[in-house]
Amino acid sequence: MIPVMAERTWTAAQLRAELAKYHQELIAAGNHRPSTIATYIQHPERFIAYLEGSYDPRQPQGRNAR
Predict the structure, then answer these.
(1) Residue 60, in any domain of the structure
(2) In this structure, is residue 6 part of a structural domain?
(3) C-alpha–C-alpha distance, residues 55 and 29, integer Å
(4) End-to-end C-alpha distance for the chain, whole angstroms
(5) Could you tell me the pTM of the whole model?
(6) Domain span holding position 27
(7) What is the rounded CA–CA span in Å between residue 22 and residue 7?
(8) Is 16 a domain residue?
(9) DSSP state of 2
């Protein structure tokens, strides 16, 4: 039988706080290029924005927006 795990929930603010800690750990590790760190952080930021309703993947974003 597979054990049932308690569901853990996070607010967007808590997710952003944990992502900020992760960002600092990546920088402190000293073995990642800035572009790699940016990729590791920007994708989760976009996902959190999606969860909050402030990002729509169906709409043009950034440089390619018209």
Answers:
(1) no
(2) no
(3) 30
(4) 53
(5) 0.76
(6) 12-54
(7) 22
(8) yes
(9) P
